[in-house]
Amino acid sequence: MTPVEDREILLSVRHMDVCFGKRRKRFKAVDDVSFDIYRGETFGVVGESGSGKTTIGRAIIRIHPTSRGEIIFKGQRINGPISRELDRQVTQSIQMIFQDPMASLNERAKVDYIVSEGLYSGDVKYTKAERTEKVNQALMDVGLLPEFASRFPHEFSGGQRQRIGIARALIMEPEFIIADEPISALDVSIRAQVLNLLSRLQKEHGLTYLFISHDLSVMRFVCDRIAVLHKGVMVELAECEQLFAHPLHPYTRALLSAVPMPDPRREKEKTIFVYDPSMHDYSVDKPRWAEMEPGHFVRGNERELDDYRARLAD
Amino acid sequence: MSEAILSVRDLNVMFSLRGKKLHAIRDISLDVMRGESLAIVGESGSGKSVLVKTFMGLNDANGWVDSGEIIYEGKKLTDFKTEREWLAIRGGEIAMVLQDPMTSLNPLKTVGTQIIEAIELHRPLRGAASRAEMLSLLKDVGIPEPERRSRQYPHEFSGGMRQRVVIAIAVACRPKLLICDEPTTALDVTIQAQILALIRSLKAKYNLTTIYITHDLGVVANVADRIAVMYAGDIVEIGTCDEVFYDPRHPYTWALLSSLPQLGVKGEDLYAIRGTPPNLFGEIKGDAYAPRNPFALKIDFVKRPPLFDVSPTHKARTWLLDPRSPKIEPPPSVKKLSTEGVKGYDAR
């Protein structure tokens, strides 16, 4: 991997809040989240359901409006009111892959239309022949046959449907893909196929991924850097192996202890940590976001940070 | 080991779909021992759910037991004709926890009412006694403030809490055999670990025999005494937990293990099983896994392998165990599992 200074920042999120509801019902789903994603990397966001990880992805792709902070994509601010032209550009270069391939494809449209739908909305008007050619290319890229274009989604298995979802993202020639739990709904044997496909496409097309999941074992296999999210607050961010070697925040350790291992000996010895947020006493000593070792950030107050430093020194 | 609580002999289950016959369970024999915890592992469509639904007479109307028998505590379940006979078994003797806690509870009734329903259906408790029992069950499954929570509706519970309620209903009728069909697939990893720990503690408390069904071998290392691997309606390998993880013999078990991301090497491709499972409408010739098996021998396409004994507790249906077959080593990631185990998930 190239040294940190030389890497180009593709997407930068600065002090972002996302809120839902109004006045008394107001709920802050994402609270002061900041991170950078470098070109060509796979950046993982891990957290349990309700932690706001999906909300972050959807805020980046402009589905949810942000309440505070900014999102900068290739040097341009893309949250809040933006020009029509930039909106088009964002729609084209950021694409999303969804969790459930049964629910994310239009049951009444043929694969041809599902995959090519994005092309109709852009500034460029494609002829029918150009569209067909692009659809065929996208289908072949994900390992499906061009003849499948005339079929309906129900004719495909779960793994094939997920490939159609990926082809639909690829056809827009994006630079950045948000993969929201892309393999959670799939069988174990098909998971491997989809993970391999995503990593091959990353190499071939120079893609950058934001990978959202609740499962650290999958994250470890695909991600370069991982951010841990708890109740909308980012608690730890580190290079993948750093995070697994020295998990600092108790929530990260709880997530790590829950990873199921296909190893009966290890499983019998293992103890599961349950994270209890009330263990933090932030009444006087306020927590801050601190860098503990190069590239390894954690949230904590001074007393906790001292604790974490001692852990790292071991 | 003790005697079998449930015993399956040469079971064949068929379904009739659009005029064609689908052979869902092909000649399965299996003994479930009293007090053990058995995991049945296989990909979707392998017949694992059909198999356990047959134990409770819950298969769809277009399915039937073609031949073979299921014996539970001396009763021949395959002879049952009427729903009334089945009602004596379902819930009271064999209970089931389903995958999705969103759909297995009634959204219009409070959680307490639903548990009381199950209690009163199967046990001679009424009124205040069944209410007290309901509260103690909620406490057993780890729901805080049972008094208040029992008056709430399923939508007020999180996914993990809902699954706890489903488990409370399942054990409410004091079953002897508890079947958990993908109990944690719809849940987060942290909740998954808690639910598995809960089922294990209830198993000890109520002397249950448990059967887990899952597609994820990674999940069962913690909970299973024995593991049966299913493929295309057949058990291709069965053994103790240690035998299946550390000394697997069937190429399909190898494939399932090496496709787990926990065993993968970063930057390299994960092993992915080629092709698709066979079509069970037609006659299957030879070993059903042969077309997808990179280690397939010529005979695999011609003759179905018998179950070879590896040890008194470990059997596998593959010609590789025949003394005449060539020596084939399991893939490196599978071998590494038995020598080094899984590394790098130390939470300290």
Number of domains of chain A: 1
* Rg over alpha carbons of chain B: 21 Å
Provide the spatial order of strands within the biggest beta sheet of chain A.
Answer: 6-7-8-3-9-10-12-11
Number of helical regions of chain B: 11
Descriptive overview:
The complex is a heterodimer of chains A (314) and B (348). With 314 residues, chain A is α/β, with parallel strands linked by helices. Chain A has one domain (4-244): 3-Layer(aba) Sandwich (Rossmann fold), CATH 3.40.50. Chain A is built from eleven helices and twelve strands. An eight-stranded mixed beta sheet of chain A has the order 6-7-8-3-9-10-12-11, with helices on both faces. Chain B contains eleven helices and twelve strands. The chains are: A alpha/beta (314), B alpha/beta (348). The interface between A and B is large, with 49 and 47 residues.
Could you outline the blueprint of secondary structure elements for this entry?
The complex is a heterodimer of chains A (314) and B (348).
Chain A: E1 9-20, E2 27-38, E3 42-46, H1 53-60, E4 68-73, E5 76-77, H2 84-93, E6 94-97, H3 111-121, H4 128-141, H5 158-170, E7 176-180, H6 188-205, E8 208-213, H7 216-222, E9 225-230, E10 233-239, H8 240-245, H9 250-258, H10 264-269, E11 288-293, E12 296-300, H11 302-313
Parallel strand pairs in A: 3-8, 3-9, 6-7, 7-8
Antiparallel strand pairs in A: 1-2, 1-4, 4-5, 9-10, 10-12, 11-12
Helix pairs in contact in A: 3-4, 3-5, 4-5, 5-6
Chain B: E1 4-17, E2 20-33, E3 37-41, H1 48-55, E4 63-72, E5 75-76, H2 83-89, E6 94-97, H3 111-122, H4 127-140, H5 146-149, H6 159-172, E7 177-181, H7 189-206, E8 209-214, H8 217-220, E9 226-231, E10 234-240, H9 241-246, H10 251-258, E11 308-311, E12 314-316, H11 332-339
Parallel strand pairs in B: 3-8, 3-9, 6-7, 7-8
Antiparallel strand pairs in B: 1-2, 1-4, 4-5, 9-10, 10-12, 11-12
